[in-house]
Specification:
The protein has 602 residues and is of the alpha+beta class. 26% of the residues lie in helices and 27% in strands. The protein is built from 15 helices and 31 strands. The strands form eight sheets. Strands 3, 7, 8, 9, 10, 11, 12, 21 and 24 form a nine-stranded mixed sheet that branches. Strands 16-14-15-17-20 form a five-stranded mixed sheet. The protein has a five-stranded mixed sheet with strand order 28-27-29-30-31, sandwiched between helices. Strand 22 and strand 23 form a beta hairpin. Helix 2 runs antiparallel to helix 6. The longest helix is centred in the first third of the chain and has 21 residues. It binds adenosine-5'-triphosphate (ATP) and magnesium ion. Magnesium ion binds next to strand 21.
Length: 602
């Protein structure tokens, strides 16, 4: 491609609305253009990158016997109602765009495709002989993200590869999951990314095991906790650890104390001269289930620890059936306005005790009449602890479970693991922290969807069983931008060769020089013919401008037809390290072919 014929517009300055380097660079270098919040045009250079990433993804998927297909983006609401996800995905913080068509039918725009694929499977899979089966697609997904940002990193319309596998049992599912683990590792390695596979939370999609593939970068939205021995790595949402030991309580007998103005843990500690590890903190949450019932939740947790809201949400989801519901729609620490809707009298905020009475909840069918009480497991061992007295300005000290306060039946792990905590697998290891961009996520779904949607097969004995399922997603557009986030310098993007839009750019310093033009044209034609994807900068611009642009768009090899042509040579500059060498014109094609091969194959 000739730059003179291309839509080639670069910006000198950083666009105002871009925060992270990769977003700024993709805008400045003319790869993407913002159309609306979380909505981007992929311009020709970007489209080539996306196609290269897609091709790597496709090759790795096909190598595992997965088959490519294309599923509809318009999804009938009935299917989502069958799986029980319509409300969670369309109400409150749900991220599915939904619409009503001219026949008054409700539809959703596909954010993911479990419902569609399970419908296909239930209609078409009859027998164990058809299993295992794995279908995937590469397609635009729609998600009405609450906070679209960072360009392609969190868009409302983005490209994903999603695959779904079907099995007779868990053993077969685990085999495919393992194959996907390998395939995903291959995709990221081939795309030139530094990444880490981490244990992950399975979230609203449900199911048992799941692994996220994190590209390591400071701008990552996710926090990864890992140990240096390489044996543990998990998303902070999922991570477990050993809490530090609690200090021995200075209080030996149970007493109520006046503690004015101590509504925070820090203030109580200062006032009572105790450690936060001796305090039972009582945190109030409010959750709404998908049948509209609001449940008030009281969490007891050690004063020095924080609640992991993802773990809490998972525990509350397990309780959904107790309230005649299937899932959770929202989970909040209730602010003043929210408290007003249900509190029968004013709450002793900052001084709540584990036994706060259910009478604080107004009698109203919308609200479950009792608090759900959960205690974090590290809080159970505390002796002679400090906690609120259910009265503003008062705490109790020297309290014990099952003496002054009944220990809640629900003892759970809802504690946030943090850097510096000891590791569970080996307490001599401490958890370290890193930022990551989640580019892929693989799940063992089990029978969640097949049971909800009656997708069954007949086994060898002639019995009908629900299909076991797995699902595997990789964000193609997010992956492409992550590569930039990991690889750039002050002058622009440095694409990994395997996903660069072009391998090389022939830059003519002076297009008025007939000899320069001739050599450049010849190289341009020969390189492309030999499979070296090459751009020709034949614009009538100063050499300096051309060099700057080539650096900005990040093409791996720049070939300059400058003064050296008088000695039968051209200058080649490697974008990554600026290494410059003069190479005989007739050796350029071979040299580049060799370099590219080495760079791509490693
Ligand atoms: P996140 O936690 O970042 O919101 P997710 O857990 O919702 O992602 P999945 O449903 O597992 O993501 O989707 C699979 C992959 O699709 C993700 O690993 C990510 O690479 C990509 N992805 C998800 N949401 C977006 C988005 N809004 N924009 C771009 N890519 C996305
Ligand atoms: Mg995720």
């Amino acid at each position: 491609m000739r730059l003179s014929k291309m839509l080639f517009v670069t910006l000198r300055d950083d666009p105002a609305d871009a925060e992270i380097p990769s977003h700024k660079l993709l805008l400045r270098a003319g790869y993407i253009r913002r159309i609306g919040s979380g909505i981007y045009a992929y311009l020709p250079l970007m489209w080539r990158v996306l196609q290269k990433v897609s091709q790597i993804v496709r090759e790795e998927m096909n190598a595992t016997n997965a088959q490519e297909c294309l599923l509809p983006q318009l999804q009938p609401a009935e299917l989502w109602k069958e799986s029980g996800r319509w409300d969670t995905y369309t109400k409150a913080e749900g991220i599915m765009f939904s619409l009503i068509d001219r026949r008054e039918q409700q539809l959703g725009l596909g954010p993911t495709h479990e419902e569609i694929i399970t419908t296909v499977a239930r209609d078409m899979i009859r027998s164990y002989r058809q299993l295992p089966l794995h279908l995937y697609q590469i397609q635009t997904k729609f998600r009405d993200e609450i906070r679209p940002r960072f360009g392609l990193m969190r868009g409302r319309e983005f490209i994903m590869k999603d695959g779904y596998s079907f099995h007779v049992d868990e053993v077969s599912l685990k085999e495919t999951y393992q194959d996907m683990y390998q395939a995903y590792s291959n995709m990221l390695r081939r795309s030139g990314l530094a990444f880490r596979a981490v244990e992950a939370d399975s979230g609203a999609i449900g199911g048992s095991g799941s692994t996220e593939f994190m590209v390591l970068a400071d701008a990552g939205e996710d926090e990864v906790l890992y140990t240096e021995d390489g044996k543990y790595a998990a998303n902070v949402e999922k991570a477990v650890s050993l809490a530090s030991d609690a200090e021995t309580s200075p209080f030996t007998s149970y007493e109520k104390r006046e503690t004015p103005g101590t509504e925070t843990i820090e203030k109580v500690c200062n006032f009572l001269k105790c450690s936060p590890t001796q305090i039972v903190k009582n945190v109030l949450y409010q959750t709404v289930y998908d049948n509209g019932i609001t449940v008030l939740v009281l969490v007891n947790i050690r004063g020095d620890q924080e609640v992991n809201e993802v773990k809490l949400q998972n525990e509350l989801t397990k309780l959904a059936a107790n309230y005649g519901a299937k899932a959770i729609i929202s989970l909040d620490v209730p602010n003043g306005e929210m408290q007003e809707t249900w509190a029968a009298k004013s709450l002793p905020l900052g001084y709540i005790a584990p036994d706060i009475e259910d009478e604080y909840i107004s009698a109203n069918k919308q609200f479950h009449s009792q608090f759900v009480r959960l205690v974090d497991q590290t809080t159970v061992e505390l002796k002679n602890f400090v906690t609120g007295a259910n009265e503003a300005g008062y705490h109790v000290v020297g309290a014990n479970w099952n003496e002054q306060f009944k220990l809640p039946e629900l003892v759970v792990d809802i504690r946030k693991a943090k850097p510096g905590d000891r590791a569970v697998h080996d307490p001599s290891q401490t958890l370290q922290t890193a930022r990551g961009i989640e580019v892929g996520h693989i799940f063992q779904l089990g029978t969640k969807y097949s049971q909800a949607m009656s997708a069954r097969y007949t086994n060898e004995q002639g019995e009908e069983n629900p299909l076991f399922m797995g699902c595997y997603g990789v964000g193609v557009s997010r992956l492409a931008q992550s590569a930039v986030e990991q690889s750039y310098d002050k002058d622009g993007i440095i694409w990994p060769v395997a996903i660069a839009p072009y391998h090389a750019i022939v830059t003519i310093p002076n297009i008025k020089d007939a000899k320069q033009l001739e050599v450049a044209e010849k190289l341009y034609t020969e390189l492309n013919k030999a499979g070296v994807e090459t751009l020709l900068d034949d614009r009538d611009e100063r050499a300096g401008v051309k060099f700057k642009d080539a650096d900005l768009i990040g093409i791996p090899y720049r070939i300059v037809t400058g003064r050296a042509i008088n000695n039968g040579k051209v200058e080649i500059v490697k974008r990554a390290n600026r290494e410059t060498q003069e190479i005989a014109i007739e050796e350029v094609v071979n040299t580049l072919q060799q370099w590219i091969k080495t760079a791509i194959e490693g």
